Amino acid sequence: MTRSMTAFANCSDEQDWGTCVWEIRSVNHRYLDIQIKLPEELRSIENNIRNRFASHVKRGKLECVLRCKPSQNQQTEICVNEDYASAIIRACTSISKTLHQPSEMNAIEVLKWPGVVEASQVDFTQLARGALNLFDSALESLCETRQSEGVRLQQMLEERLLAMRQIVKGERQRRPQIVQQTRDKLIKKLEALNASYDKDRFEQEMVYLAQKMDVDEELDRLESHFTEIEDIFKRDEPVGRRLDFIMQEFNREANTLGAKSTDIETTQASVELKVLVEQMREQVQNIE
């Protein structure tokens, strides 16, 4: 089963503990490259996220971003250091007794004093747990997108594979005709020159020329690669690298077919094969 390396997933959730939004982008890459951006308060879940990625994705460059906001109930709680505030009030009262015209002290001034109001301690435990649960949903959505895109890529590859099969089949059927055409062409040239020739030697040269023109081995290898690709499509594992290697083999055989060509039809067949191989190779780059 083929899976694409290109996908996107976005999941958000709002609960009593706060709001979380996950965004995951996946593009093609030779290896597995994971980039994670988390709030500093939730850095503790990074290794957990990497492990979950590794268990579901084998290749691709992944960019993962988490945006979180704790609930207002936690953020608006005010913690006052009452002991410290009482000490300040006592000190101000004592000093006021020594002043001729002391000014009145109010609660706002006491709260403004550094250290009286302490930052509220937000409990990020529930937020981290909720973020991980939401991440599982985002990862599932990403994998579903990669799989559906992989199915579409496989269909495109199968269409081009069928076209290549037709070309190879046509070339195999034409081989006897090509040898006969080459033989007739040489005989006509000799007759046009009114030159006498040794028929035995001519047959020997025809055998040598037929060997140079023989592409049965290349056509056999192409058909072998067709069968291998069909087998690869059935595997439940990453197959992108293996397909990329077969694309190189396809291109090599198509080049050899063109190099041995002695007629325009074979040359055109070689070009058509290379065009199809290039189209397939571009799609294979996106397969995991």
Explained architecture:
- The radius of gyration is 37 Å and the shape is rod-shaped.
- It is an alpha+beta fold.
- 19% of the residues are buried.
- The protein has helices spanning 46-56, 72-75, 82-96, 107-112, 125-192, 199-213, 216-233, 240-259, 264-284, and strands at residues 7-15, 18-27, 32-37, 60-70, 79-80, 117-118.
- The protein has three domains: 7-73 and 123-147, Ribosomal Protein S5, domain 2, CATH 3.30.230; 78-118, no CATH class; 149-284, no CATH class.
- Its cofactor is a divalent metal cation.
The domain count comes to 3
Helix content: 55-70%
Overall shape: rod-shaped
SS class:
alpha+beta
Number of strands: 6
Compute the separation of the termini in Å.
10 Å
Helical segment count = 9
Order of the strands making up the biggest sheet: 1-2-4-3
- Average of pLDDT: 84
In this structure, how is the largest beta sheet organized? Answer: 4 strands, mixed
Strand content: 5-15%
Radius of gyration: 37 Å
List unreliable stretches of 5+ residues: none
The run of helices and strands is EEEHEHEHHEHHHHH
Q: Secondary structure elements and their pairing?
A:
Elements: E1 7-15, E2 18-27, E3 32-37, H1 46-56, E4 60-70, H2 72-75, E5 79-80, H3 82-96, H4 107-112, E6 117-118, H5 125-192, H6 199-213, H7 216-233, H8 240-259, H9 264-284
Parallel strand pairs: 3-4
Antiparallel strand pairs: 1-2, 2-4, 5-6
Helix pairs in contact: 1-5, 5-7, 5-9, 7-8, 8-9
Keywords:
single chain, 288 residues, alpha+beta, Ribosomal Protein S5, domain 2, 3 domains, two-stranded antiparallel sheet, rod-shaped, hydrolase, YicC-like_N, Protein YicC
